Amino acid sequence: MRKFLLVGVSAFVLGAGTMAYLGQQAQADTQTRTQTYHMLELFGNVLDIVDHQYVSKVDDKKLIESSLKGMLTSLDPHSDYLTPEDYRDMQDTTRGEYGGLGIEITSEDGLVKVISPIDGTPAARAGIKSGDFITAVNGQSVIGLTVNEAVKQMRGKPGEAVTVTIARDKTDPFDVKLIREIISPKSVTSRVEGDYGYVRLSSFTEKATDETRAAIESLRAKNPNLKGLVFDLRNNPGGLLDQAVGVADLFLDGGEVVSQRGRDARNIERYDAKPGKKIDGLPVVVLVNSGTASAAEIVAGALQDRHRAELVGLTSFGKGSVQTVIPLRGGLDGAVKVTTARYYTPSGRSIQKTGIEPDLEVAETREEATQIANEAFQFSEASFHNALSADEGKTRIAQHTPAEAPPAAFDEKKGDFQLTRALDVLKYGSVQATPKLPKPEVTLAQAAVLRAAHGNVVKPGAAAPAPPSKPN
Length: 472
What we know:
CATH class of the largest domain: Alpha Beta
Oligomer: single chain
CATH architecture of the largest domain: Alpha-Beta Complex
CATH topology of the largest domain: 2-enoyl-CoA Hydratase, Chain A, domain 1
Strand content: 15-25%
Structural class: alpha+beta
Number of domains: 2
Number of helices: 11
Helix content: 25-40%
Number of strands: 20
Largest sheet: 7 strands, antiparallel
CATH superfamily of the largest domain: 2-enoyl-CoA Hydratase, Chain A, domain 1
Distance between the termini: 80 Å
């Protein structure tokens, strides 16, 4: 009887504790809702004040759209509100055909920054580079504009001239005159390099998988005895997830390509390649650099984790977040683009902020090697002040001397050193078996950094401080 009573008392205590907790939770939820309603009322009051007291007449629709944009862009660099026009432009972009200059851009602290030029477009031919800032279009400043607003300034009728002002590290601002074209870049280019094939994929549009497959088949038809393949994903800003999975599937015999996890880590969505050997196990080397982002990182990470390819080049951009586009009233009110998950490679690595490190680190030029050695912050996802955190708490590789760079005898204007080293890896069978080149000499600025690490007063990065997504 006593045990029964004790159980009864325990049950009563637990029950009372549970009721108290539920009561506290309900009270907290009520307080949160009350605060939300108060802030919505505050928004309405501020809108009313601006509407009636601002020095000039205002457009309430534009004010509210700007408020929606501000709310979403404050979350991370990739969340945004798309107006109906923005939404239509985005659909044109993913279809792979639109009018403009061919530049993938983003916004950084109110400045328009180039992620990468798109192959075969006016911007690429004019020499615009990843990391450049666009400060003006046709003499009109674009500082402070959103990405979508800046894109509208650059897009226009094909055949018309447009002048963009470029700010580049260690140079004075300069103007570049471009002629707008219908941007329908072919995502894939290919050629034979001796006994090896070379395929470059510039973006993951709706045609990426089909064009990559066709390019590989064409190369094998030209040379049935190909000994290996270089797959170039440098300066590929990404694109559609299903195309990333499709491209990876061309190389993998089933198994996981990528997974994504949202707010609840237990909800894991996995994307797998289809079973069946592809391209007969042909050895593959993937070229990557700091412009390799998003869907391109998914493919590079999958092939590296699954030991299907080795990576040559530089650490990738580090854009490892998933954006879901949610149309509002079927797109009549535009759409919300919101970050809903993080990407993970098959081994469970998060791409976010850290990027994917190559198996053989190779700088493309001697100048690039100097930048990597002396600048604390290279342009990457980690350079955005409000970037989503790296899930595992890891940090991106800091300034350092890259493992390899072109030797003095290499002609950088005529040759592609990263491609040369990728072909060497195919020739010798693996990164491990490939003879390594001497490490580039440490520059004076980097030596100062190293001295600082051993207790001197010079701070890392002081010798060469770093300068302060969407295609068009």
